[in-house]
């Protein structure tokens, strides 16, 4: 059962969830919170494990006796293997429920991450980062569908922002860890720090319940997912295009920025870490604010406002000579970038077929990441010809303009009833 009134208030929406789970109100409230919390915390952990490497490019290059470019290349490898996880775990989540595949995914990528600092050589390190990418790719589709299906409809955009803000919070925690942990402990501890949070996610997921919308629309066979994907191939292609462009925006403005600060402005590791903390606070605020307002002004309009904010921040973000002004520019840039991304979980889930929501959103998301994965390498190569500042500016300006067209002309199903 589900709420009959799309504009119903929170109490009405919760009553619908109670009916769907055939449980008492208090029990459903607790389980609803467990589901949303586990999905968000898992994404925070996933992002933390990914961004630890961004702050350790120099250290890892020295440890494995390779150039910085070789370490940067492993970022692309991680992004490129993510669709494998989305395909495998997404189809399992649509058939067997969100909870068990999510637990398996969190344990898998946490163990791989813990093994990474002990790689005996560069080749082993590359393999581990590729394997980690499979787990990272598997998580988003499951976690996003679990959070979106469990959230009250009227707050879907807000919780979408919270979920995607978890990515920036993971980046922020990595920056804090580098600032305060690395000076006193070995850098290897940065790869081990997520184990405790992984166990918390497992416990919360175990205590949660499956959403009524999954129970109503679940697949009877794993092979049915391929038929649904083919039936909705046009919508799927659009989401892949959308995710390709927005991946270039997100990773293009984040992954090389610490190296840009060190290379162009000779910033120390402490300064880079402090700036990363600042602009990730901006990213978190952007995801929350734009995600919240997308519930009233629409998903596409909210994203386009966020993109405009990013576009006008480029001069401060790339060309400032003062560290303070660079901090302001990077704060505003990431407010816009992650403000746009904060709407993505809700937007993709609302545009996806109900019986393959984890697979459809997850694979589209991660295929977009795969196609957009070379953006970091392209930017790194462009800076040799254009200079770091113009390389970042030219690449991101083009990406933002393309995204404005994609969202301006694209579809929207804000407030869709997932259980229908």
Question: Summed up, what is this model?
Answer:
This protein is mainly α and 420 residues long. It contains 20 helices and no strands.
What report would you give on this structure?
The protein has 420 residues and is mostly helical. It has one domain: Up-down Bundle (Growth Hormone, Chain: A). It is 79% helix and 0% strand. The chain has 20 helices and no strands. The protein has helices at residues 10-21, 25-51, 57-64, 68-80, 82-96, 99-115, 122-150, 156-180, 195-207, 212-217, 224-231, 233-254, 257-265, 269-297, 299-319, 323-342, 344-351, 357-372, 375-386, 388-409. Helix 2 runs parallel beside helix 6 (99-115), helix 5 runs antiparallel to helix 18 and helix 8 (156-180) packs antiparallel against helix 16. The protein is globular. Mean pLDDT is 83; it is low at 1-29.
What is the terminal-to-terminal distance? 9 Å
Please provide the count of β strands: 0
What is the number of helices? 20
CATH superfamily: MFS general substrate transporter like domains
Mean pLDDT rating: 83
Largest sheet: none
Question: Which stretches are poorly predicted, pLDDT < 50 over at least 5 residues?
Answer: 1-29
Shape: globular
List the helices and strands in order. HHHHHHHHHHHHHHHHHHHH
Residue share in helix: over 70%
Could you give the topology of this structure?
Layout: H1 10-21, H2 25-51, H3 57-64, H4 68-80, H5 82-96, H6 99-115, H7 122-150, H8 156-180, H9 195-207, H10 212-217, H11 224-231, H12 233-254, H13 257-265, H14 269-297, H15 299-319, H16 323-342, H17 344-351, H18 357-372, H19 375-386, H20 388-409
Helix pairs in contact: 2-6, 2-7, 2-8, 2-9, 3-4, 4-7, 4-19, 5-6, 5-7, 5-18, 6-7, 6-9, 7-18, 8-14, 8-16, 8-17, 12-16, 12-18, 12-20, 14-15, 14-16, 15-16, 15-20, 19-20
